[in-house]
Amino acid sequence: MGRPGTAGVTPDYWDEACKHLMKRDRVLKKLIPQFGEARLQSRGDAFTTLARSVVGQQISVKAAQAVWDRFAELLSGPTTRIKPADVLALDPTQLRGAGLSMRKVEYISDLASHFEEGRVHVRQWAHMDDEAIIDELVAIRGIGRWTAEMFLIFHLMRPNVLPLDDVGLLKGIGQHYFSGEPVSRAEARELGEGWAPYRSVATWYIWRSLDPLPVDY
Fold it and tell me: What class has domain 2-42+160-210?
């Protein structure tokens, strides 16, 4: 699946993907070398990653980190892996006290229930295709297709995801391929077909071209 990096796990396919994309795409041929040895990295476990995504919805990165830290403190500290059973053992008022909205309390509880009751098949994910995993994830309250696709890219490190609902991806495609003009999802999909089977990698470099700091999730 991947090899250890300095702060996480990086995909084994990355170098091969870069060679493939640089041969086939004039923009990526210029972009990829600009970022040297930078790689996508996966951190944490599935439940913690998804819980962080729910906490961070519709608030700034700084605010999300502050809420997450308070939430994690309820569960024995910020470095502890968050366990679904421990979340379900908390009273909703405790979660509200950490800064979660009532809606996010419901979302976090539903997420924890899905994991605790085995309604998501984490151990089978390695053998399931992307759409099957997305179907499982979007059945959880508060998780839409975009969040599921981010999870596929950043946690499961699936190589061929094209998140057409991502504003940054569409902006980057417009900037690099359409002279700065806005692009439709259909145009982005058509362009992305040329990036297969490494559409996640191309997407990551498009993101990096807009924000040089490593994308993390």
Answer: mainly alpha
- The pTM of the full predicted model, rounded to 2 decimals, is 0.88
Confidence class for position 79, pLDDT limits 50, 70, 90: low
Average pLDDT over residues 117-146: 96
- What letter represents residue 160's amino acid? N
Tokens of 34: 């600009």
For residue 87, what are its two tokens? 């979340």
Answer whether 50's CB lies under 8 Å from 111's CB: yes
Residues 57-70, mean pLDDT to the nearest whole number: 88
Q: How far apart are CA 121 and CA 126, in angstroms?
A: 10
Mean pLDDT of 93-119: 96
CA distance 179 to 81: 45
Instruction: Write b or e for each residue in 50-67: b if 16 or more Cβ atoms lie within 10 A of its Cβ, otherwise e.
Output: bbbbbbbeeeeeeebeeb
pLDDT at 6: 42
Q: What topology does CATH give the domain 46-154? A: Endonuclease III; domain 1 (1.10.340)
Q: Structural domain boundaries of the chain?
A: 2-42+160-210, 46-154
What is the sign, positive or negative, of the torsion defined by CA atoms of 123, 125, 128, 132?
positive
DSSP class of residue 178 equals S
